[in-house]
Write a structure and sequence with these properties.
This is Transcriptional regulator, CdaR. By secondary structure, the chain is of the alpha+beta class. The chain has three domains: 129 residues; 129 residues, 2-Layer Sandwich (Alpha-Beta Plaits), CATH 3.30.70.270; 97 residues, PucR C-terminal helix-turn-helix domain (Arc Repressor Mutant, subunit A). It contains 16 helices and nine strands. Strands 4, 5, 6, 7, 8 and 9 form a six-stranded mixed β-sheet that branches. A three-stranded antiparallel β-sheet has the order 2-1-3. Helix 1 packs antiparallel against helix 4, helix 2 packs antiparallel against helix 5 and helix 11 packs across helix 15. It is elongated and about 105 Å long. The protein starts with a strand and ends with a helix.
Length: 387
């Protein structure tokens, strides 16, 4: 390998034109010349001795790659300036090897390749570190937001994540048999779909306690529920609990609590609806606030069902199906019974409790007791306590 000097060539001599090569390559790529610091020396050394990158060389290139990432230099631009510098050095500082010197060409190309790989490694390291740092900040913000942290600090950080906390927000939570995690591909895909469907801004998607949490700027819980249902239809993640709209940082925490409560009540009530609006469950929350009165109501109205063969559960399920369906025929289909068999069960419940499920007047007491039983986990919870 030869270097061009005053019309003659001498092996392994670096041309003073290296500074010009660096300047031209950097100008063409629009980058800082310092990104090429030491690179041409490595190329010329490889041409002179055949040596590859040393550990120090690799460390230097990785450090430059990290610095480029931190300075927002695109990886493609970084690779471009190195390839330009390599090409200029090859054509203007070095001479293609003659016969018997193919190993020199291989050494130069190997060094160029390894240098770019080291650059990319450092660049990726910086990117991953930035992502981890951003995710840690995001996780801290989400935790503070959902649990009602300091309003001032939340407002300062909210803009970074696309939220205007002065507006009204609705929180929805999605529960599935398989918990959601931040690193789950399913979580990433659903988050992207939700952002695209609801709005690129004003939407924050994260995970919390195995749930997928969506904070959306909106005043219409039903509309948010429709968007969520359509967005996740393909994955069919299970039940969606939706809070009511509230303004301010504290409003997000309140809506989140309502959405979690909606999920909890849906589970206790055995509701199979795809999504549960918190506003639709207010009556159940009211019932649940006076536990002593609810226990008394359940014991007074439903306790006689426990003394039947098979226990209270089959008859309790019959009442639940009947009240939800609104008529005997639909309830019978749900329970896979004949209408005659279902009617017989309703008559038996009437005899045992003294309340007629088909009577508009008596139905309210009986239905309220059934709701209370589900909220209390009766009769299973009572049986486990007695053990």
């Amino acid at each position: 390998m030869m270097a061009r000097t005053n019309g003659t060539r001498s092996a392994g001599v670096a041309d003073p034109g290296t500074a010009d090569v660096i300047r031209r390559a950097s100008t063409a790529s629009g980058t800082d010349p310092s990104l090429l610091a030491g690179y041409l020396d490595i190329l010329l050394r490889a041409a002179r001795t055949g040596r590859g990158l040393t550990a120090a060389d690799r460390s230097d290139r990785r450090q430059i790659g990290r610095r480029a990432a931190e300075d927002s230099v695109a990886l493609g631009t970084l690779v471009d300036v190195y390839l330009r510098a390599t090409r200029l050095a090859w054509t203007e500082l070095l001479e293609a090897p003659k016969a018997g010197h193919r190993d020199v060409t291989a050494a130069v190309l190997r060094v160029a390749n390894d240098a770019i790989v080291a650059l990319a490694t450092g660049y990726d390291d910086a990117q991953r570190a930035a992502i981890r740092s951003e995710e840690a900040l995001r996780r801290e913000f989400v935790d503070d937001l959902l649990h009602g942290g300091d309003p001032g600090r939340l407002a300062e950080r909210a803009g970074r994540f696309g939220l205007a906390l002065a507006a009204r927000h609705i929180v929805a939570v999605i529960r599935d048999e398989r918990p959601f995690t931040d690193t789950d591909e399913r979580t990433r895909r659903l988050a992207e779909v939700l952002r695209n469907r609801l709005s690129p801004s004003g939407v924050l998607v994260s995970t919390k306690d195995g749930l997928l949490v969506c904070v959306a700027q909106s005043s219409d819980s039903a509309a948010v529920g429709d968007h969520l249902r359509n967005a996740v239809a393909r994955d069919d993640p299970g039940t969606i609990g939706i809070g009511r709209p509230h303004a301010g940082a504290g409003g997000v925490a309140r809506s989140y609590d309502e959405a979690r409560t909606a999920l909890e009540l849906a589970g206790r009530l055995g509701v199979s609806a795809h999504d549960m609006l918190s506003a639709d469950l207010l009556v159940y929350q009211v019932l649940g606030r006076d536990r002593a009165a609810m226990v008394d109501l359940v014991d007074t109205v439903l306790a006689p069902l426990e003394h039947t063969r098979g226990g209270a559960r089959p008859l309790l399920d019959t009442l639940t199906a009947y009240f939800r369906a609104g008529n005997a025929m639909a309830a019978a289909r749900t329970l896979h019974l004949s209408v005659r068999a279902l009617t017989y069960r309703l008559a038996r419940i009437h005899r045992l409790t003294g309340y007629d499920p088909t009577s508009p007047v008596q139905r309210y007491t009986l239905e309220t007791a059934v709701i209370g039983a589900r909220l209390l986990g009766w009769p299973e919870a009572e049986a486990s306590e007695s053990e």
